[in-house]
């Protein structure tokens, strides 16, 4: 089963170079499992035992099963994750022609590690809005093949490179796409029109706008002398999205279960489809009873916010509290912060730990060093909007926010197992 989950994750990562593609891949798998798409612009008719999903902005998705037991009596079992990852986004007027090369200006999305983007075989994917026969529409595109690279400067020309240098995002990160000849002019929108035609058979009168990101074409893989690791792009946090999906599909239909995968976590979550926006509450209010019953339901519910945790790196052990250094392949991590950067409390942590013990899943704890700042995730934001009890957890990883991250090859199966048990649990604390 472990190998099956790992290969499924690798396939999912390949299909999901952007949040738009990740959402489409999740929706495709949900539809194949009998979930019905709900259009936010149309009336909804839901019933006990039904399976449904909703998307917004093509980049966030909420899937839910309505159990045979009323959610007002049994509560909701919610798992939350996010679809976005740090990357390089193409600017609106990106064409750069310098020294005979065609380059694209890029904007950094989220807290990316810059150095790993150099010398990688890059492709481009995302959403394009265009006009065809007078009608404005949007379409996802993915060039798939390597079309760009950001070459490093040779050590001979930058003798201080190994002593560290500040990478300038404006001048040093524009990828090279081609070498131009003579008076040849670069036209990025024409390139996108050609891609729409070749990939989807569409004839765009005009490319109006786009949201496009570069990504590394090297496929994710199980690696290591003993195949101990999964290496790949966007493990933060598509790994959690995939684990939540597998758990939702495996859970029986007795209880009401929700999977929410929001966009924009890496940039603060404040958007119409982010965790600091109204999407989840609006969806739940359309499904659950109003007023007093809604509050009763939420207060009987629990959210497991799943986002990757920092594993103890053997080259940098002093970056962790000595008693709270999560290890790869040692199970999911309960994330705790007394300043509410994580929404975990003793009751929710205790319940998650109980689930792990009952299902023979190893479990760990993470608290950041007292002299270091702490990141955050969707847990506190969702808890703040809904008033739902929350535990923040995640699988330990190395190189978070790099173009290629590393996780343990045993841990995905651990996470799927405990999340399935959570969705199945007849009683919440």
UniProtKB/TrEMBL annotation:
Superkingdom of the organism of origin: Bacteria
Cofactor(s), by name: Zn(2+)
Keywords: Aminopeptidase, Hydrolase, Metal-binding, Metalloprotease, Protease, Zinc
Enzyme Commission numbers on file: 3.4.11.-
InterPro entries: M18_aminopeptidase_2, Peptidase_M18, Peptidase_M18_dom2
Binding site for Zn(2+): 82, 156, 401
Top EC group: hydrolase
Keyword Protease: yes
Any one GO molecular-function label of the UniProt entry: aminopeptidase activity
Homology family: Belongs to the peptidase M18 family.
Name of the protein in its database record: Probable M18 family aminopeptidase 2
Source organism of this protein record: Pseudomonas benzenivorans
């Amino acid at each position: 089963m472990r190998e099956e989950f790992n290969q499924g994750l690798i396939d999912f990562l390949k299909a999901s170079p952007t949040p738009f593609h990740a959402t489409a891949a999740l929706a495709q798998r949900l539809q194949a499992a009998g979930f019905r798409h709900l259009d936010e612009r149309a009336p909804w008719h839901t019933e006990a035992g039904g399976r449904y999903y909703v998307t917004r902005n093509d980049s966030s998705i909420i899937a839910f099963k309505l159990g045979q037991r009323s959610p007002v009596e049994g509560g909701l079992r919610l798992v939350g994750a996010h679809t976005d990852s740090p990357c390089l986004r193409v600017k609106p007027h990106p064409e750069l022609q310098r020294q005979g090369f065609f380059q694209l200006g890029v904007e950094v999305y989220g807290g990316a590690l810059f150095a790993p983007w150099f010398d990688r075989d890059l492709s481009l994917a995302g959403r394009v809005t265009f006009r065809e026969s007078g009608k404005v529409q949007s379409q996802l595109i993915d060039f798939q093949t390597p079309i760009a690279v950001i070459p490093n400067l040779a050590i001979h020309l930058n003798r201080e490179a190994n002593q560290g240098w500040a990478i300038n995002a404006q001048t040093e990160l524009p990828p090279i796409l081609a070498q131009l000849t003579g008076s040849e002019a670069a036209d990025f929108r024409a390139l996108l029109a050609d891609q729409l035609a070749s990939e989807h058979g569409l004839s765009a009168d005009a490319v109006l706008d786009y949201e496009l990101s570069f990504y590394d074409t090297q496929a994710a893989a199980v690696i290591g002398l003993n195949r101990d690791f999964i290496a790949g792009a966007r493990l933060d946090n598509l790994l959690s999205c995939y684990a939540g999906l597998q758990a939702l599909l495996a859970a029986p239909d007795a209880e009401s279960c929700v999977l929410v995968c929001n966009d924009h976590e890496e940039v603060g979550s404040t958007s119409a489809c982010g965790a600091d926006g109204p999407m989840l509450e609006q969806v739940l209010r359309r499904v659950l009873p109003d007023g007093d019953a809604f509050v009763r339901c939420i207060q009987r519910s629990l959210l497991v916010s799943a986002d990757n945790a920092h594993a103890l790196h053997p080259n940098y052990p002093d970056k962790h509290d000595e008693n709270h250094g999560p290890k790869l392949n040692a199970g999911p991590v309960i994330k705790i912060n007394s300043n509410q950067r994580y929404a975990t409390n003793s009751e929710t942590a205790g319940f998650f730990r109980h689930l792990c013990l009952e299902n023979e899943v190893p479990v760990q704890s993470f608290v950041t060093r007292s002299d270091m700042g702490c990141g955050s995730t969707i847990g506190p934001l969702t808890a703040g909007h809904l008033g739902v009890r929350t535990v923040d957890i995640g699988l330990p990883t190395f190189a978070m926010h790099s173009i290629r991250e590393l996780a343990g090859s045993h841990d995905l199966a651990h996470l799927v197992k405990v999340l399935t048990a959570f969705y199945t649990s007849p009683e919440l604390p």
